[in-house]
Design goal:
α1 packs antiparallel against α4. Strands 1-2 form a two-stranded antiparallel ribbon. The protein starts with 10 loop residues before the first helix and ends in a 17-residue tail after the last helix. The chain has eight helices and two strands, in the order αββααααααα. The protein is mainly alpha-helical and 230 residues long.
């Protein structure tokens, strides 16, 4: 007996989802190259610095620091950050939808218990999806010159959302990939599935080529800003 809400989906949909996720992720990577703030001195930061700040004050400091930069650098950093957060609204359903498809496909290769476990892992991706949307919208409304320091309870809730979304999505993805690797090592796969593996490898190679081509793009010489904040 299969999980009551189990769905039969072709691997081609996973390939499409994975390709879209990789492409959007690549664009977000390019945007992150322009993330700069004045935090003691002019420095780069990542979206993870905003998702997991050490304290409510640190989050506000990172955001305020963007507006304290020289006008050109501030505008570039601000536009890149807002652009990534808006693009992330599209990335969210693509990413968790892809994990959903992966788990659902794995569930169909499993017996009774395994079928239930992976189908359940697929459907509970709705939890990190919601967490990610709340987190993203929270950050968007925080981006202002007078970014307020949140209360400790709000900060703790924000941190919990981040930990929850990463824990659930990573557990689902790692478990699914591990099971698929086991099937491949034991030869328990159809020859038809090799076509889908080739598509995924081709997508990864394309993204790696794009990363190589754009490796030195958007580089800024921070030496000219070294006296700012001193």
């Amino acid at each position: 007996m299969n999980f009551p809400f189990s769905i039969n989906i072709s691997w081609i949909w996973f390939c499409i989802g994975f390709g879209a996720m990789a492409l959007i992720g690549f664009v977000m990577h390019l945007q992150s190259k322009n993330f700069y703030t004045l935090h003691v001195f002019v420095r780069k930061f990542s979206i993870l610095d905003l998702e997991f700040p050490a304290s409510p004050l640190e989050l506000a400091t990172y955001i305020k620091g963007i507006f304290l930069l020289p006008k050109e650098l501030s505008s570039k950093s601000l536009n890149a950050l807002k652009g990534q957060l808006y693009l992330h609204l599209l990335f969210i359903p693509v990413m968790y939808g892809t994990i959903f498809l992966l788990c659902m496909e794995v569930s169909h290769k499993m017996n009774f218990l395994g079928n239930y476990i992976f189908a359940l892992l697929a459907w509970i991706q709705i939890i990190p999806l919601i967490c990610d949307y709340i987190e993203n919208l929270y950050l968007l409304q925080k981006i202002r010159p007078d970014a307020q320091v949140s209360t400790q309870s709000v900060h703790n809730s924000f941190q919990l959302l981040g930990k929850l979304k990463w824990a659930i999505s990573l557990i689902a993805a790692v478990f699914s990939i591990s099971v698929l690797a086991y099937f491949w090592l034991t030869g328990s796969y159809s020859k038809h599935s090799i076509n889908f593996l080739i598509i995924i490898i081709a997508e990864l190679i394309l993204i790696l080529i794009l990363l190589k081509i754009t490796k030195n793009s958007s580089k800024i010489n921070l030496d000219q800003y070294q006296n700012i904040g001193n």
